[in-house]
Amino acid sequence: MFSGWTIILISLAYLGLLFAIAYYGDSTRKGRSYAANPVIYSLSLAVYCSSWTFYGAVGRAASSGWEFLATYLGPVLVFIFGWRILEKMILVSKEQNITSIADFVSSRYGKSQSLAVLVTLIAVLGTIPYIALQLKAVAISYDALAPAASDALSKGNDTALFVALLMAVFAILFGTRHIDATEHHEGMVLAVAFESIIKLTAFISVGLFVTFNVFEGLDDMLFNLANQLSYNENFGSLLKGSFLTETLLACGAVLCLPRQFHVTIVENTDVANLRTARWLFPLYLVALAAFVLPISVAGFMVFGSQSLDTDTFVLMLPLAADYKALATLAFIGGLSASTSMVIVASVTLATMVCNDIVMPLLLRTPRLKLAENKDLGGLLLQVRRITIVCLLLLAYFYYRILGDRGSLASFGLLAFVAAIQFLPAILGGIYWKRGARYGALAGLAGGFSLWIYTLVIPTLIDASLMSDTLLPAVAAAGGWLAPTDLLGLRSSLGLDPLTHGVIWSLAVNLGLYVLVSHYSGSRLVDRIQASAFVDVYSKELQDPSRHYSQVTVGDLQILAERFLGAARVQQAFAGFASQHSEKPPLSGDKATPQLVQFTERLLAGAIGASSARIVLASVLRGKEMQIGDVVTIVDEASKALRFNRSLLQSTIEHVTQGISVVDQQLRLVAWNRRYLEMFKYPEGLICVGRPIEEIFRYNAQQGEYGPGDIEELVTQRMNSQVSHAPHLYERHRPDGTVLEILGNPMPNGGFVTTYADITNHKRTEAALRESEQNVRTYTDNVPILIAYLDPQRRFLFVNKAYADAFGIDRHHVQGLAYEAVLSKAVASSRNHYIEQVLHGQRVRFESVMPSQIPTDSPRYAEVTYIPHFDGEHQVVGYFTLYQDITERRIAEMALKETNETLEERVRDRTQALSTVNRELRKENTIRALIEDELRQAKAEAEAANLGKTRFLAAASHDLLQPLNAARLFTSALAQQSHDQSTHQLVENLDSSLKAAEELITTLLDISKLDAGALVANVTDFSISTMLTNLSTEFSLLAAEKQLQLHWCNSQQVVASDQALLRRILQNFLSNAIRYTQHGKVLLGCRRRGDRLRIEVWDTGVGIAPDKLGEVFEEFKRIDNPRHSQVKGLGLGLAITERIARILGHPIDVRSWPGKGTTFSIEVPFGDPAKAIRHKTEQRGWIRSKGLNGVRVLVIDNEPKILEGMRALLQGWSCETLTALSVEEVKNQLNGTDFEPDIILADFHLGETYTGLMALEAMQPLWSKPVPAVIITADRTDSVSEEIARQGAQRLSKPIKPAALRAMINKLIAGEKGEKQADSFKP
Question: Which segments of the protein form a coiled coil according to its record (predicted)?
């Protein structure tokens, strides 16, 4: 178990990492580009997988069978078969600038505010149970990991409250740091995608742990699953229970959950990303669902009938096996699942509540005068933050009131049913044009009411929060209006409560939506929005050219005359023909595309562009339109125009520039407050309809246009308006300020002019020019050539020396290409230097000094490229410096010339060395004699070494007995409660004993090899199985060091001893992982003639060439500072070398210091016909119920061993009987009914008496065969075979408590397996 503060610190560190990722995604361009990646988008969709799927799915599988699968199946079906729905929703959202699901529904039905409020209320009430689910998941996982801390908390505090407040803080940090008009949160998407990877990794890690630690591999797991599916009644037909209902809910939830809508629709940056998500998101769900059933079955096997919450199996299984690191990873995975859902859901709901409820109310409150506030961003952020805190507190109170009334899945299903009420309005909105605003309101209100009546009220009654006496008599139990059996539907069809509630709420919702929509009228805005949503793929309204061939000139004339009159239309059509040099068109002629567009512009001048487009599109499609319909359109278009004018005025009031707008008659029609403030016009001068000429004259009189004749100045400005040409210029005003004036003509006549005060900009510009002049002055007086270029290798600055040397004009250098200054050959030779500096590296090299003045001898320069970084550490350019080093080069050449005179002295020295060599030959003769003596001494040393080896073998064997007792005592001591210091002493003692055990075991192996006691059992077998097992065994070790373990499979058959060859490869892989700090490890094979070479490559620190021969020596470790960080005895490769000699397999080692090392062994090919086939071991179904009350008999001739075993077994709640001999067993059993469930016996009970003999002698004492375990330090094959013949199990000394407990569990469960399996039969 963990301390509470440890879990809190881990959680805070992880949440801090998420915030760093989100900050990176929001604040950097590269982070935002990552968020737009299709893979990141697909992973962010896994926000769907909350703690319900991480914890609750396992609990659901344990209690309800196949129903857990519906949660995963629904989204998979939608993304595989219904992805067009998502695509259409995304396209609509992009066109309509949708920011939430409430915005989507209200926009479809005429931008209805009441509908947005209703959707928001349903979303909030439906999501609160879901957020409460996350709080419960984090709380129970925290309590499972730190029960002592949770007990302390329960006395005065509350885990869930702390979790709620902490999540509120992080939701505020993630989603309300700033306001984004598009409601895109790239950082949040990046963080959610990262969390998706973490929770998938954590869940799969627990699944692999279950497969290979709780079960005995994949075959054993599948066998147990098959038994569970066969005998457990919950795993019957998929169609029973609420499976189909939950599948429907999951399909709808992936479309309707507010958080899922936000991530899938709003955060989508490119609809093409959906094509990647179509397969990647379902694949993610399949991977997550794959281990749900194995973890559930493993939970029953380990915990049996213990009163343990099945939702915590994911955490408790690693904890039960003392895998604390894996339990921590599982906790972080569950925390990821919860935080991602809470953060996205709370941010989404806060946006909806703020935009659709709070802000409209505040803006409509006259006393607040918010409409006059220019900046509401701060208020929006405060409202959203307060909303997030309130939502989390509501979810907390829901959890406190109803948290113990159901599982995680029940909370989630309640939220799903609320969210699915949006489905009729959404699907009807994008596929049925007749769907109307009142229909959506009626459907949502009816469905939501039935959700409350049929599902929420029964939940409150079950929780004793509401008395059923408050309901009328007809709604009481058995009544025809009973919430759980409305109109007797449930009892007549045999429905479960969930299906009953879903059918009623959805049926009423859909029925009211269709009926009310059919009989209610629709406004123009409703019809326009319906077409925009339903016809998002169609281009009819946007592209009427496809119908040009169906309309005549007469049709267009009749249409235009209804609005403009016959005379004006005739004149306009004649003018059109004259402009195009054509004859006036006849009524029966087909209308050209140009004439259609001209008619549309003609109508737009009278009824507006939008109404003109609608009317014209109706004619082009051949639909008859009555004049009454046209009048209605015109009336509503006029209202829209008035609204747009008001909106335009509100918009330009918030622009910092002054704005004035004149119409075709050059009359003022619009302006903003800033325009008035700039020119200080007298009251009454500025009004709608005022001729712009009068305003120009007033400005001229005030001196705005400078000196000159006033009428001439006015005429110049009027000509610029009449010319209909855009203009841009600066005006220096009498008060010293400077205005930038930009005028742009409007398409139908008129002018828009903006006035920007750029006084500060001009002053800054002047200061920059002065600063640039100072920089030029400084650099021109430095005796170095200086230039600055941008990343595209274009010059931005050169000093005078550089310009003179290269012969360029420094005043026109900006934008000059690098290749235009240097020759092509020189530029090409420097490309790799420039690539380095653009990657942030400082580069220095030598070159010839450039010069435009001819000289007798060349001059040399040292060239330096220096990168220039911006605030985000991105290279934005680089400096080029040339420094004259001619004098230094001359000195170097002089030194070189001096060195050449040394050759004569070298020849003299060589002659002297020849004389010395002759003396060395004499010395070599003497050394040969000495070597003979050394060989004789070596032979004597080897003989002594053999004696030492035999002594070590015997001594090590005797040491195992007391070491075994010590390990038993420390294991028993570790199970008891101690203070922190005592607990640390126990851990240190256990660690020391483990180290001693490893040393003695290794010495035994070496002594056994040196004594020749080991005989190889060579067989033919496929190397594939061994490689697969090794990769599985070492993958987790590599992952713990953040290394990548790659392996290449091979189907070759080899001839070797499987156990010994596996031992060699295990040593190779263990060393590779141990001495590799980062990078990867590779396991693979190569053919070498008639042999197969098996190699292990690593990217570790490597071994010096002169040290390669020492790696196979005992207690020898290479003297490398980085090796000192790694624990080891230096015996592994010594054992490997001896085993290889026995097998006759040559081994080899190659190394590259600093890059890595390769160990290899060559094995001869075997005969495929003789290859051993792997047989799957068939096991009975195991279902362990723990060791509580298990009766154990222990026989050993060492009293200390018996004391240690008794302490250890009693710590496991076993009933223990210990004895030194069979006679003592009989004496202790006399007059008792004690009959053991298992016997643990030492092999050597005397000089000639063995534990197997004792078992045979005690057999008549028992009423049935009793499983037995023989414990021995003798590791020979003969002893193992003798134990196996007697039907007993074998454990080696010193005993590992985990191995002993697993063996007892296995034997006890196997004895009771058949009885427990029968209990599952119906």
Answer: 899-947
pLDDT in tens, 854-908: 666 778 888 999 999 888 888 989 989 888 888 887 887 777 777 766 666 777 7
> Could you say which DSSP state residue 656 is in?
S
> For the domain bounded by 763-900, which CATH number is listed?
3.30.450.20
Scanning 520-565, the segments in alpha helix (DSSP H) are: 524-534, 553-564
CA dihedral 549, 553, 555, 560 (to 10 degrees): 130
> Helix 627-653 crosses helix 524-534 at what angle (to 10 degrees)?
80
Q: Which of 327, 111, 358 is nearest to 210 (CA)?
A: 327
- Which of 657, 429, 498, 500 minimizes the C-alpha distance to 60? 498
Give the start-end residues of each E strand in 413-500.
481-482, 485-486
Instruction: Give whichever of 368-377, 539-548, 984-993 has the largest mean pLDDT.
Output: 984-993
pLDDT of residue 959: 61
Question: How far is residue 147's CA from residue 153's CA, in Å, rounded to a whole number?
Answer: 10
Residue in the structure block whose two tokens are 């918009």: 651
Degrees (nearest 5) of the Cα angle 75, 78, 79? 85
Which has the closest alpha carbon to 975: 1201, 1207, 1199, 1205?
1207
Report cis status (omega within 30 of 0) of the bond before 691.
no
Reply yes or no on whether the pLDDT at 715 is more than 90: no
Q: pLDDT tens digits for 292-327?
A: 888 888 887 777 666 677 777 888 888 888 888 888
Positive or negative, the CA dihedral 591, 595, 600, 604 is negative
Q: Is 1014-1170 a CATH 3.40.50.10170 domain?
A: no
Q: Are 738 and 759 in contact (CB under 8 A)?
A: yes
> Residue 927 in 3-state DSSP?
helix
CB 1192 within 8 A of CB 1308: no
Angle value at C-alpha 426, between 124 and 643, nearest 5 degrees: 85
Contact assessment for residue 1149 and residue 1158, using Cβ atoms and an 8 Å cutoff: yes
Q: Which two tokens stand for residue 706?
A: 């400078």
The size of the chain, in residues, is 1322
Q: What angle do CA 617, 619, 623 make, to 5 degrees?
A: 105
Domain extent listing, the chain: 4-424, 437-521, 539-638, 655-757, 763-900, 902-1004, 1014-1170, 1191-1318
Average pLDDT of the chain, as a whole number = 78
What was the pLDDT predicted at 492? 75
1014-1170 has the same fold as 655-757: no
φ, ψ of residue 1083 in degrees (nearest 5): -120, 125
pLDDT of residue 683: 79
Neighbours of 994 (CB within 10 A): 14
Q: What is the pLDDT of residue 408?
A: 45
**Torsion angle of the four alpha carbons 1159, 1165, 1169, 1171, in this order, in degrees rounded to the nearest 10:** -20
Spatial separation of the C-alpha atoms in residues 623 and 353, rounded to whole Å: 42
CATH, range 1191-1318: 3.40.50.2300
CA distances from 1010 to 855, 950, 1003, 1006 (A): 81, 8, 10, 6
Q: Which residues pair with 482 in a beta bridge?
A: 485
Give the pLDDT band of residue 641 (cuts 50, 70, 90). Answer: low
The listed CATH number (3.30.565.10, 3.40.50.800, 3.30.450.20, 2.60.120.10) that belongs to domain 655-757 = 3.30.450.20
Q: What DSSP string runs through 1177-1199? A: PP-PPP----STT-EEEEE-S-H
- Pairing mode, strands 785-789 and 875-884: antiparallel
- Which residue matches tokens 């075959």? 219
Chain-centroid distance of CA 770 in Å reads 51
Nearest one of 513, 506, 516 to 443, comparing CA atoms: 513
Identify the pLDDT of residue 158.
64
With residue 660 as reference, give the H or E element that holds it.
strand 658-662
Hey, what CATH class is 4-424 in?
Answer: mainly alpha
